[in-house]
Amino acid sequence: MCGRYYLHSPPADVAARFGADLRDNFPPRYNISPTQPIALIRRGERIAREYALARWGFIPGWARGDHLERLAARPLINARGETVAEKPTFRSAFMRRRCLVPANGFYEWQKPPVREFAGREPADAQTKTPAGKQPFVVSRADAPLFAFAGLWETATGPDGGEIDTAAIITVAAGPDLRDIHAREPAIIAPGDYARWLETDERDAAGLADLLVSPPKGAWRAFPVSRAVNSPRNDGPELIAPLAA
């Protein structure tokens, strides 16, 4: 899955990378969290690419009442690549409102191996305990700035007003990350940006080949401080390697 990520590239670099008109002067962010506004690149009028902000936590346009309240309380931050074209929640957005989510990297939390209790224990005592999840920072080995595959939707917010919302698509983890987590965000390569954003809804099913994990060597990952666990923390120290 992808539940936290960071984007510190300046706006000019984002605009150049994705070929979009970008005039906002947004600051670097090292701990972007669900329900916060996130930057995305989407197809605008006449196929031109545009920059937009959306709430990270997808709400389908048809959600109302209790369903809307549940999604507002527990946002859908990810969509599974294997089912995104079929699930009613995401199907319409996948066909018509795909986007790119610029990022420099993301975080995953590795479940630790269970460890045995030291010393003698009663025969009926629990014999194993988790040691706590370890956060890892993950970035591309070949590019400092890349794009998650995303979806966006203009939905009705909890207050009754319209709001743009978004989700990041995930796939089964590939060889670089499967020892850390079972899922990873789907990445759209620069050569596929136009295809991902501009493919007609009648041909959207043919985009499935883009939603795959990359080959070995695409990612680099190392453990970082548990300070990233709190969304209140933000700064370049969050992506610094954990001291031995």
Question: What can you see in these coordinates?
Answer:
There is one protein chain. With 244 residues, the protein is an alpha+beta fold. The chain has one domain (5-239): hypothetical protein yedk fold, CATH 3.90.1680. The chain is 13% helix and 32% strand. The strands form three sheets. Strands 2-1-7-10-14 form a five-stranded antiparallel β-sheet, with no helix packed on it. Strands 3-4-12-11-6 form a five-stranded mixed beta barrel. β11 and β12 (162-172) form a beta hairpin. The longest helix has 9 residues, at 65-73. The chain is globular and about 50 Å long.
Low-confidence stretches: 116-131
Gap from first CA to last CA: 27 Å
According to DSSP, the number of beta strands is 14
Basic shape: globular
Q: Within the CATH hierarchy, at the fold level, what is the topology?
A: hypothetical protein yedk fold
Query: What percentage of residues falls in helices of 4 or more residues?
Result: 10-25%
What's the structural domain tally? 1
Give the averaged pLDDT, no decimals: 88
Strands of the biggest beta sheet: in what spatial order?
2-1-7-10-14
Cα-atom Rg, whole angstroms? 19 Å
* SSE run: EHEEEHEHEEEEEEEEHE
Strand content: 25-35%
Major sheet attributes: 5 strands, antiparallel
Give me the CATH superfamily: SOS response associated peptidase-like
